[in-house]
Write a structure and sequence with these properties.
Layout (H helix, E strand, L loop, with lengths): L4 H9 L2 H21 L11 H12 L2 H34 L1 H15 L7 H8 L3 H25 L3 H9 L4 H39 L3 H11 L3 H32 L1
Length: 259
């Protein structure tokens, strides 16, 4: 069925993305006018036009490439470790219910603890490098993957398991064809949450100790009182966060199609 150009344009103009874009542009225009009128100091919030110029200056420089590569690599490595350890532990807590009852509440309590306070311990153990940063981020970000994996598998409706038992489905097929497809959306909620926490931890520690990556770039520009480039570096963090989110959504959609 062919779709007319007018229908396509109407759908695009009145789509949620279009409304969101218009809102963002409107807020930027309002902010520009507010700063221009000296209602807000430029030393606190720079002009959006100046931030745009700073974004382009960073984009064409070699600085942003190395900083973005360092942070992205650290986030990818830490997220991979979180998934590699979190999923099996969550499954084991489901497989052995007594351990799930014993440690489930404890893990949820630990998730509310700011594990970044342990960073000095990792700093002493591994030195001022990305190993210490990744270990600190891992110690906290693995928890949501464990918790959501356990809850996802535990929340599979009993009627589905009874249907599988009626058809004499093997334990292996029961897990891969019944339990995992049903639990997959909830598991990915934990993975996406963990990934965002990983990014926050890594950028935050980079900023705190002024070591490599986008966090160091933000700290360096702020120390130079270059406020537009400070906000420009923050924009790159936001773009990286959005990119990682959509990548994970794409992986989730691909895995759903496989089932």
């Amino acid at each position: 069925m062919k779709i007319g150009v007018g229908t396509f344009l109407k759908a695009a103009l009145f789509s949620p993305a279009a409304y969101g874009l218009v809102t963002i542009v409107g807020l930027l225009v309002l902010l520009e006018a507010t700063v221009q009128a000296n209602l807000v100091s430029k030393w606190i919030v720079p002009l959006p036009t100046e931030v745009g110029s700073a974004i382009w200056e960073l984009f064409v420089s070699d600085t942003i490439e190395s900083a973005l590569a360092s942070t992205t690599t650290a986030v990818a490595v830490c997220t991979a470790l979180v998934i590699a350890f979190g999923l099996p532990i969550g499954y084991l807590l489901y497989r052995y219910p007594k351990y799930g009852e014993a440690y489930g509440t404890l893990l949820k309590s630990l998730f509310s603890v700011p594990m970044i306070l342990l960073f000095p311990v990792f700093l002493v153990m591994f030195g001022r490098n990305y190993v210490a940063i990744i270990c600190c981020a891992f110690s906290h970000c693995v928890l949501p993957v464990i918790i959501y994996t356990h809850e996802a598998l535990f929340g599979v409706p009993a009627v589905l398991l009874k249907v599988g038992k009626t058809f004499r489905v093997s334990n292996r097929d029961k897990f891969w064809k019944i339990m995992l497809p049903h639990a997959l959306p909830t598991i990915f909620v934990g993975i996406r949450l963990a990934m965002i926490y990983v990014l926050v931890y890594i950028v935050g520690i980079e900023y705190m100790i002024s070591f490599g990556g986008l966090g160091h770039l933000i700290s360096d520009m702020y120390a130079r009182f270059d406020i537009p480039k400070t906000f420009a570096a923050i924009v790159f963090v936001i773009l990286l966060s959005g990119s990682l989110y959509f990548v994970m959504r794409g992986i989730e959609a691909w895995m759903r199609r496989l089932r």
